Amino acid sequence: MSTSQHTPLVPLEAGASPDNPPCPACGEPLFGWLGPQAGLAGAVSRCESCGLGVVGGAPDPEEALRELDRRRDGEGLRVANRASFACALGNAGWSGLAPGSRYLFTVESARRLVARRDQVVASCHWVPGASVMATWGTLLNSVTFGHNVALAALGGSAVAAPADKHWKRRIDALASVVLAIPAIVIAVPIELAGGAARRGAVLRVRTQLL
């Protein structure tokens, strides 16, 4: 006769330590996600509760709010969604890991942050065109030495981290041209699924006072 074993659930707070500082959005410990990447200020950690990503150490709620405010786009905040299908697919190649990034937002982390100043998330909408391009860039990042080179070449707000060698940059340019159409063919259904599941690559979040 077999006896079933039940492993007790361990709360996230149990992982708190100097190496796992509290998330600036929800207070749960941050855990390691990615090592240092080109163009980023350090290793990347993430919150398993609200999904916020943090580049480098010593996160601060007010700093995170200021960076969120810099995503202002008209009446809303336009954010690259760290909870997106594109991010899960791309991991270190995710186009949202743009050079200079400090905080990587999700809708839940944005909700927690704006609650600090008595605001709520009133609406959240998928941005189809930008999302498809972000996923397209993520797919191309998986085959290039540099990061976001194809997206930056098209202009807009994308910032690239080019490869460190000339020959690598030439290969990146060739790969981006040859694989541009196959990548867009793959990106479209990924984003249609992401949009339907509320896990699109780019979201417009509108907040309002309580």
> Which strand order does the major sheet show?
1-2-3-6
Low-confidence stretches: none
Rg, nearest Å: 18 Å
Helix content: 25-40%
Strand content: 15-25%
Characterize the structure shown:
This protein is of the alpha+beta class. It has one domain. 34% of the residues lie in helices and 18% in strands. The chain contains seven helices and eight strands; from the N terminus they run βββαββαβαβααααβ. It has helices at residues 61-69, 85-90, 107-114, 128-141, 149-153, 166-178, 180-196, and strands spanning 30-34, 44-47, 53-55, 72-73, 76-80, 103-104, 119-126, 202-209. The strands form two sheets. It has a four-stranded antiparallel β-sheet with strand order 1-2-3-6. A four-stranded antiparallel β-sheet has the order 4-5-8-7. α4 packs across α7 (180-196). The longest helix is centred in the C-terminal third of the chain and has 17 residues, at 180-196. The radius of gyration is 18 Å and the shape is globular. The mean pLDDT is 91.
Summarize the entry for a quick read.
The protein contains 7 helices and 8 strands; from the N terminus they run βββαββαβαβααααβ. It has helices at 61-69, 85-90, 107-114, 128-141, 149-153, 166-178, 180-196; strands spanning 30-34, 44-47, 53-55, 72-73, 76-80, 103-104, 119-126, 202-209. Strand 2 (44-47) and strand 3 form a beta hairpin.
